[in-house]
Amino acid sequence: MSTEVSWELALIRSWRKLALICAAALSVASSLWQLTYRKFVYDFVFNPNWVNPESLPARRAFLSFVAVAAVAALLLSARVLIQARRGRTTWTFHREAFCASLFVLPVLSVPEVEFQHPIFTALLILVFSLAVSWLVTRETEKLRTLPDLSRRQAQVLVGLGYATFVGVIGFISYWRFITFHAEVCDASYEINSVAGIVRHGYPTLSVAAFFFDGKPLPGPYFINHVPLSEYLFAPFFFVYRHGSSVVWAQAVVMGAGTFGAYLIGYKWLESRLGGVLAAFLYVLTPSVQGFCLHDIHANIVTIPLIMLAVGFMEVDRYKTAFVLGLMTAASREETPVYAIGLGLYWMFSTEDRRRFRYGLALVLISGVLEVFFSAYLMPHFGGQPRMDHFNFFFFNQRNGGSLIAALLLNPLGALMSSSAEVKLEYFAITLCSVGGLALWGWRAGWFLVPALLLLIPAGNPTFFSLGVNYSAPLVPAALMMSLAGIRHFWFGAATSEPEAADLLRRRRIRVASYVLASALLSNYLYGNIASKTYKLEYGQSPLRRENQRNYRDIIGYVDTLPPFGNAEKLMWEVIDRVPKNVPVLTSWAINPQFAHYDVALSYNYSGGNPHPEERVKYTIIDKLPAFQVVTEPDIAKLRRDTKRWKVFYENASGVIFERIQR
Amino acid sequence: MLLLGGDQHLWTYPGNWAQPWVPKEQSRNLRALAASNAAVYGVLTDGRVARLNGSWSPSSSGSWSPIEGSASWGASELGVTEDEHLLVIANGKLRLFEHNALRTLDCDAIDPVAVAGTVGDGAFLLDSAGTLYFNGDGRCDKVPAPAPLRRIAASSGRLLAVDTDGSVWRRRENAWARLPPPMKYQTGQAPVAKQAQDVAVSPYSTWLADTEGAIFMLSDEI
After folding, report:
1. Are residues B199 and B127 in the same domain?
2. pTM of the full structure
3. pLDDT tens digit string along B131-160?
4. C-alpha to C-alpha distance for A133 and A128, rounded to whole angstroms
5. How many A/B residue pairs have CB atoms within 8 Å?
6. Are residues B23 and B113 in the same domain?
7. Does the CB of A43 have a partner CB in chain B at under 8 Å?
8. In terms of DSSP bridges, do strands A654-659 and B63-66 run parallel, antiparallel, or are they unpaired?
9. How far apart are CA A364 and CA A350, in angstroms?
10. Do A625 and B203 touch (CB under 8 A)?
11. Which of B2, B84, B105, B190 has the most beta carbons within 10 angstroms of its beta carbon?
12. For A503-539, how does the pLDDT look when each residue is reduced to its tens digit (9 = 90+)?
């Protein structure tokens, strides 16, 4: 007796499967076509109103790909229909859904897509990550339990994550330094500062001689910034007195947030597996990586410090956490505001009275420090906090009070300011790196306080460019809220009642695979560890050694690392010929390599009185090809000035002029 | 760096902060241009040869001083040596401007279409077939080249050339080396090698223009 059901019923039962089979086949055909005809993909997707005549053969070829896919889809569909006719009522969809999502990958590999269309890219990342998550969850259903990692296993994995971050990011930032891609602002400034800490006990500055008219160099850095966190870099410089040691030191310190992330994940997700997941997410965060390539900055150190502070507080190491909180506050003149976010989080995120008291103390001390830095220390040395990056004020005056009044009394204006295109793009890039789960992490929303205070009023687009140090306040908020968002889904709403281990396991695999997929894709697109491009140059032109790919004229990124060729080798020969730690004046491109000298001024930049040429014994000018900052006229000028300068050494990459003593 | 644009106007590089190129204010349109470290000469649209006075920095407008009698030269191309001698292709022949008059040089038998000055009366020449010659030391020598050439530029110790296929060559110590092609980066595309159209040199850099009018700087001169 036949058990076949009617064709109508078979179609009603199987249409979802059939539709997904067709979508998957079309997606695979599209992927293969995109990989074959990469040249036309960008216009095909992003300029759909224009049919490039050159692309017509490729478009016709697409139909052939689709025809083959259609045959495959028909065969698979026939099989499903036969199953349906024989009475089958259910099918799995996850493999088809995964295949249907594959076509986004070739698009994402097209040059510049991620920076030209960040919001669209974020959507593609989320869609693909959801498909991965579904696939992994269903394919691992046979796993009965998800055993947690041993302490040793967790230590090894976190250690590997840290070593990867320091090894790769430290190397790229070192490479950037030795190939003369570091900039005066702010590699020279901060190397000056660290060298000053080791030599004089406090941060000093010489490259910005215009701050010190008529005064001896180097001068106290407090006239411009209060970079106290750079005391963390000083031991590295003490051991090896070279600018490259500071570059490596920054990667070592920034990577330390991996351990803080592990502690947070371990406690919040109640497993070592969760801790390792959090550590990996930190390592893969594009912003954290990028900060190490945007020269050297004191404020970004707050990111690992906050991660460590929260982590230690979670494991009840109150005093250690509090000290780390204080270090966060004292990192630079604006970082007490970051620490206030941390203190507020400790005060209000749990009902732990001891944690509340530490949080309150941190808020109060941070407030005092902020006043001390901005109203006493910097003015004492003739400076003041910079307000020129902000453009959202209540009164005509550009000061803190006017800014806070605008935030409080003009919330719609603040909302309007926050919805500028560059800000939305930055939020999309930042949030998609952990699958947008930060939107479910309001438990850690206190960390948004400094971000809101500093980022909403900022009108300068550099505040919203990946890796530029100004964007640092948002990163702890994004990280902490993302981890809180993971926790939200890790346990889910059903934790109050006994939930089957199987359900919990499935939930964890689903969340972990989703966030790892989005983190890996974001790292590929926006990061620097085995990534699509290297984000090497920051800040607006003309300060560029490369001119390949650009985001808003703020981030210069390249497909491959620049070579360390003969020009660079000969330039280092010139640098090595300069007597050690004498006052020098250098061209822009090579100033960071001399910034560990007590007095290292930059030609056509340092200014000040006396004139830089009167303050130094040697002037070193490079002959490196450079976009927009040219040195040929400077060399010609010094060559002509035979009464004051003579050539001390010269090769094909640079020339050292020695000042003739009168 | 000075550039004679497709609009026959002079451009200077770099400009002020964040302005890579700025138009140089000057009242004359130009047909041809040649410069050394300290001297700039141009062929005006009326055929006269003129020297640019004043600095060529973006802030300086400068002015052109035509050389008396140069309208009759039939000047088509110019070259300037490092010691600021002006070389002129006048009525199809290479001449040196000296003591307010044009002097015949050793390569008088050649009909050059391009000239690149070196030192003194030294100059590389190209004829219309792309053959390279060197005028100097009292002789006119044919210089072996790897391919027929289209444009040349010279400074002390090096000669840069673009051949008729758009490849770029450098001659140093009598040896030719093919240089990498200019690479253009465009949104959505892998880097594409472009054919060079023209070449220029400054003391430590080599500059290229591709067939689409984009300007490139060689990234490693050594």
Report:
1. no
2. 0.91
3. 999 998 889 999 999 999 999 999 878 899
4. 9
5. 72
6. yes
7. yes
8. unpaired
9. 19
10. no
11. B105
12. 778 888 999 999 999 999 999 999 999 999 999 999 8
